[in-house]
Amino acid sequence: FHSIPDQQIHIFQICDALSNYDPSTQELRKISRTARLLPGEGELELLPLLSRLHDHVTMSIEVPNLHEAERFTPHERAERALVATKSLIRKLQ
Fold first, then answer.
1. What is the pLDDT along the chain (93 residues), one digit of tens a residue?
2. N or C end of the chain: smaller count of CB under 10 Å?
C-alpha cells in the first residue's frame, strides 16, 4: 500500500479479518465470499490504511458474511457496517 502513489487511489473497499487463517485457495475463497468481518471487529491494521486516504477517495464497506446474513436483515447489516466503520474512522481524529 505504501508503494502506491496517493493520486492513484480513487476507491477503497473496507472490511476486516482475522490475522491467523488457512492460506489455501479454497479457504481464501470461502473467507472472501462468506466470512469477512466488520471494520474494527478483526485483527487487520486498518487505521494506518485509512490515515493514508485523501478526501477525494470513495470508500465502500464490503463485508460478505454468511453468519451475519442469517442473523440480521439487510437493513440491520447495513446499519451495523456503517456504525462499525464510523467508529473506526473516529479513532483517526
1. 567 787 888 999 999 999 999 999 999 999 999 999 999 999 999 999 999 888 889 999 999 999 999 999 999 999 999 999 999 999 998
2. C
